[in-house]
Amino acid sequence: MTLTTAALVGFALGLDRVAGEPPNAAHPVAWLGRLVGALDRPWSDDDRVQRSLGVPIALVVPLVPAVAASGAVLAAAAVHPVAGATVAGLALYLTTSLRMLLELASEVVAATAGDLETARDRVRGLVGRDTDELSPAELRSAALESAAENLADGLVATLLPFAVLAPFSLPAAAAAAAWVKGVNTLDSMLGYPSKPLGTASARLDDLVMWLPARLSALAIAVAAVDLGALARARGWARTPPSPNSGWPMATLASALSVRLRKPGVYDLNPDAALPTLEDGERATRVVFRAALVAAALAVALGAALEAAARTAGVVA
């Protein structure tokens, strides 16, 4: 099954590379977003009640895409095993995003060379901060921060459980990838301090993202051919409010010898200069290579677990 897993991971990444993301009207993640949007309301004036109501939302909503994905794989597999595997690969493709992230980051970096209005407009698709007063270097910093953080959120978080479970069960692998995407979607829409309803979703996302964030940091260090970047990043990785996002961002800052800064929130590698145009171009190449490294690591981990299970007699 390891070869099947590698083939499906390659299929999903290749499809993303060639086709990009489907339009929102046909994208299951957008459908899930509409469901979350319908739940995002003040059910009570009491913040404690809102936080309590957020618990079943965090627990139940991610099960919706998980059940749908596993059901689709099982239904297709009942027709033919190849059909089941194909649907599993499609499920992974629909829960990952790399091409759009890198294209948008590259557009922002390129626009900082002479079209700051375009850069400020495009970077809003990557970050939520006010961009009106950001300098060209600060705009590049924002784009690079997002590229590093979303490597974990948009790719590794769903690819890792898929690759680990696929050697044992494709329906379970598809369900796991969809469940994680559901958790990420809840956090991205509800996980703000101003929304007590999303407190449970944010905590669950912190837990789910612990390993993907650190694997992404390792992949960035390997892709940059600078394993020491991980050790150097340790001093800044805990600076951002998130317990996870600082790891890939700080590692990228360290590997590129650049400063990545969100004013008033965090300052990564503060003794370096903010990224130049060339730094920004190099960063997108490093993140792309890191995605391939992360995919290889995830498949290797799945293969190791399958081999261990066979040795223990757990699987035939």
From TrEMBL:
MF (Gene Ontology): ABC-type vitamin B12 transporter activity; threonine-phosphate decarboxylase activity
Pfam families: CobD_Cbib (PF03186)
Name under which the protein is recorded: Probable cobalamin biosynthesis protein CobD
GO cellular component, one term: plasma membrane
Database matches in InterPro entries: Cobalamin_biosynth_CobD/CbiB
Family: Belongs to the CobD/CbiB family.
Localization (cell): Cell membrane
Parts of the chain that traverse the membrane: 159-180, 286-305
